Amino acid sequence: MTVFTDGKGDTLAGICSMLYQNHIKIQDFTPLTPRLEDVFLSMIDGKEKDRNEV
């Protein structure tokens, strides 16, 4: 499973807590750094949403 977050420690702690409470074990954890393309696309997506708001 891949989970995307805002990168804040509190968010990660909340995810881990929820998994623990539901008896779901984490077998592997790899933090991923966004690629330049990912950052660019998220910026473009945000601008499109701003234009579509009334």
Fold and architecture overview:
With 54 residues, the chain is mainly α. The protein has one domain (9-52). The protein is built from two helices and no strands. The longest helix has 17 residues, at 36-52. The model has no long low-confidence stretch (mean pLDDT 84).
Question: Brief description of this entry?
Answer:
By secondary structure, this protein is mainly alpha-helical.
Q: Topology of this protein?
A:
Layout: H1 9-21, H2 36-52
- Counting structural domains, the number is 1
Shape: elongated
- Regions with little confidence, pLDDT below 50 for 5+ residues: none
Specify the oligomeric state: single chain
Could you describe the largest sheet, including whether it forms a barrel? none
Element string (H = helix, E = strand):
HH
Q: What is the share of helical residues?
A: 55-70%
What is the distance, rounded to the nearest whole angstrom, between the alpha carbons of the first and last residues? 36 Å
> What is the number of helical segments per DSSP (H or I, 4+ residues)?
2
- Give the beta-strand count: 0
Gyration radius, in Å: 15 Å
Estimate the mean pLDDT confidence: 84
What are the main properties of this structure?
mainly alpha; 56% helix
